[in-house]
Write a structure and sequence with these properties.
Blueprint (H helix, E strand, L loop, with lengths): L5 E3 L4 H10 L4 E4 L5 H6 L8 E4 L9 E4 L2 E5 L4 H6 L1 H6 L1 H9 L3 H6 L2 H6 L6 H8 L3 E6 L2 E6 L4 E3 L2 E2 L7 E8 L5 E12 L1 E15 L2 E10 L6 E2 L1 H7 L6 H14 L11 H25 L3
Parallel strand pairs: 1-3, 2-3
Antiparallel strand pairs: 4-5, 5-10, 6-7, 6-10, 8-9, 11-12, 12-13, 13-14
Helix pairs in contact: 5-8, 9-10
């Protein structure tokens, strides 16, 4: 039994969008396909008539600096992101997240766009991109537009992108400036491949011993990627001390909505371990920002 009837390889973003719109049956974009192909083979996805391969579109495989932003095409494999000097310089949290996605074979094939389009609130790439305040470029029949990254998510596994009509072209991240840095860490359980129990990403800017600005993201902390805004407020403009950290952790625990996963961890266990994970991630970003001079 064929998993699809037609397979198209457009060479431009508009050609891909038009192929989606004109397909004679249900159509979906595909890049790495590490999730979609398994779902089709195992009957977890409704039948597809046409697959639109995005990996032949030059725009979507670019990783480059554009003015004061870093652009990462949605079809760039996560292993390339993990190894590229540009992401290592300007998106350390994303580099660390991509290094932890599945195993080497999957990382060579899976794409950042696919990781995001799957819309899981604790996905490694998603957590890092949220902390880095990325914007997404989305294309449809009426043209392209930029969206705040978090607006892509409606709930667990529910994307705001209509995959039958739209595609994610890529992501824009602010360039890292002087005394800014980021970090990503996770606690995981080995089960064939390492399954994340809890993820954390922190981006910050320091002015001497003061937290000038900060973004804190924990997953899963809610139905969509969770910014710990109350914890950010507790740290912003303050010296990083044990007292201010304790206040920030209390704020994070009060705001987050941890859930129980039968295959990963209980909500209570996640509450118990988040303090150590948050502390380690924050301290590494803090140390990196001291020596950052770009």
């Amino acid at each position: 039994m064929n998993l699809w009837q037609e397979y198209k390889r457009p060479t431009s973003v508009m050609e891909a969008v038009q192929s989606l719109a004109s397909a004679s049956g249900p159509a979906l974009p595909i890049a790495g396909g590490t999730d979609l192909l398994l779902d089709l083979k195992q009957g977890r996805h409704s039948p597809i008539h046409t697959l639109i391969d995005l990996t032949f579109i030059p725009e979507m495989t670019l990783l480059e600096v554009r003015g004061d932003e870093l652009f990462i095409g949605a079809a760039v494999p996560v292993n390339r992101i993990a190894l590229d000097l540009l992401t290592g310089t300007h998106a350390q949290a994303l580099t660390e997240a991509c290094n932890l996605i599945a195993g080497p074979q999957v990382r060579n094939t899976a794409t950042l766009g696919g990781n995001v389009a799957h819309a899981l609130p604790a996905a490694d790439g998603t957590i890092a991109l949220t902390a880095l305040e990325a914007q997404a470029e989305v294309a449809g029949v009426s043209g392209t537009r930029r969206m705040p990254f978090t607006s892509l998510f409606l709930g667990p596994g529910k994307s705001a992108i209509d995959k039958s009509k739209e595609i994610i072209v890529g992501f824009y991240l602010p360039i890292t400036n002087h005394h800014q840095a980021s970090c990503f860490k996770r606690i995981m359980r080995p089960q064939g491949v390492a399954l994340p129990i809890l993820n954390c990403a922190v981006w910050l800017e320091r002015a001497g011993d003061v937290v000038n600005d900060i973004h804190i993201v924990v997953g899963p902390g809610g139905a969509t990627p969770f910014r710990a805004t109350e914890a950010e407020s507790a740290l912003r403009g303050k010296s990083l001390s044990e007292e201010t950290f304790d206040h920030a952790l209390e704020s994070l625990l009060a705001q987050a909505k941890f859930r129980t996963s039968p295959r990963r961890a209980s909500a209570d266990y996640r509450k118990h371990i988040v303090g150590g994970l948050f502390s380690d991630t924050l301290n590494d970003a803090w140390s990196r920002a001291l020596i950052s001079d770009r």
